[in-house]
Automatic annotation (TrEMBL):
Ranges that cross the membrane: 65-87, 99-120, 132-157, 169-192, 221-239, 246-266, 286-305
Protein name in the entry: NADH-quinone oxidoreductase subunit H
InterPro entries membership: NADH_UbQ_OxRdtase_su1/FPO (IPR001694)
Similarity annotation: Belongs to the complex I subunit 1 family.
The organism of origin for this protein: Nocardioides marinisabuli
PANTHER family, sorted: NADH DEHYDROGENASE SUBUNIT 1, NADH-UBIQUINONE OXIDOREDUCTASE CHAIN 1
GO cellular component: plasma membrane
GO biological process, alphabetically ordered: aerobic respiration
Membrane topology: Multi-pass membrane protein
Length: 306
């Protein structure tokens, strides 16, 4: 009984943290687009009320189960990512393969975003879905190699061990390329900022074209939640986890996650959306080799330190 109550309390905490991160991302994104701070704080509830009153759009022969299931699953993936984060030395979903699970969950997003375009039975949506897959492959490989760097330095795939191995020098300081590649990957799987062309004007809103009302609300909430969840996972990977003076470790994890979420959302709102081909070439020819070199540097440092 006690274990069940602890699990319920932990699940509730993860859900609240996911929603708080999503709301922070939404407000920061709105601020970046030029709206006032007070207006930005109320943007999420106002937009939610507006979309809940809006009628759902339907398309001919749409696969509604997969279409709408994919939208809700974005929120589920975000919550699972947050559940992997060790808030005070332990996570709701602890495991020796936390880094691998985080990578697996972001790859699940590939299928979910593609299903948003495919399930609507819409040409524009399907084009957006396939463009997302093409772009995802280009940013995912650098992201995967970026995840290798902190795991290699800590000698573990456990997020709690990775966080604890950083001491006073965060991995973000001496692994800047891996950190930047990871953050670009977060923007990519949240479909926000420069890598958001598959849902942008280039394809007539792409995978979002046929979404409206509650369906669009769920998907947008999922995108902001994924941005916040990706930022939360970055805390044990690159920002020292719960290390910090005076405050408990869990508070430091939350503060760092919120600040990184706000910064990422602000950047996403300020930078223009880049066309897919303009991103793919530098990602394959420049970004990927740089991250591999970063991994080699980390490997040399680890070997020299033994």
């Amino acid at each position: 009984m006690t274990e069940l109550l602890i699990a319920l309390a932990g699940s509730s905490g993860v859900l609240l943290a996911t929603l708080l991160l999503a709301w922070t991302a939404s407000a920061s994104y709105v601020v970046a687009t030029g709206r006032a701070g007070g207006d930005a704080l109320l943007h999420a509830p106002r937009e939610s009320a507006r979309l809940l009153r809006q009628r759902r759009r339907t398309t001919l022969s749409a696969d509604r189960l997969l279409w709408r299931g994919a939208g809700w699953s974005l929120l589920l993936v975000a919550a699972l990512l947050v559940a992997l984060v060790p808030w005070d030395g332990s996570a709701l979903l602890p495991g020796s393969l936390g880094v691998v699970w985080a990578n697996t969950l972001d790859i699940v997003v590939w299928a979910l975003v593609w299903l948003l375009g495919w399930g609507a039975n819409s040409v524009v949506g399907l084009v957006g879905g396939y463009r997302f897959l093409a772009l995802a492959l280009a940013y995912e490989l650098p992201l995967m190699f970026a995840l290798v760097a902190p795991a290699l330095a800590a000698g573990s795939l456990d997020l709690a061990v990775v966080a604890g191995a950083q001491g006073t020098l965060w991995y973000a300081v001496w692994m800047p390329v891996a950190f930047a590649a990871y953050l670009l990957g977060v923007l990519g799987f949240a479909v926000l900022g420069p890598p958001s062309a598959p849902a942008g004007r280039e394809t007539g809103s792409g995978v979002l074209t046929e979404l409206s009302g509650p369906d669009l609300l769920v998907v947008n909430a999922g995108r902001y939640a994924l941005l916040g969840a990706g930022a939360a996972v970055a805390v044990p990977l690159f920002l020292g986890g719960g290390a910090g003076p005076w405050l408990p470790g869990a508070v430091w994890v939350l503060v760092k996650a919120l600040l990184l979420t706000a910064a990422l959302a602000w950047v996403a709102g300020r930078l223009p959306v880049l066309r897919v081909h303009r991103l793919m070439e530098p990602l394959w020819t420049v970004w990927l080799p740089l991250v591999v070199v970063q991994d080699l540097v980390v490997a040399v440092v680890v070997v020299m330190g033994r």
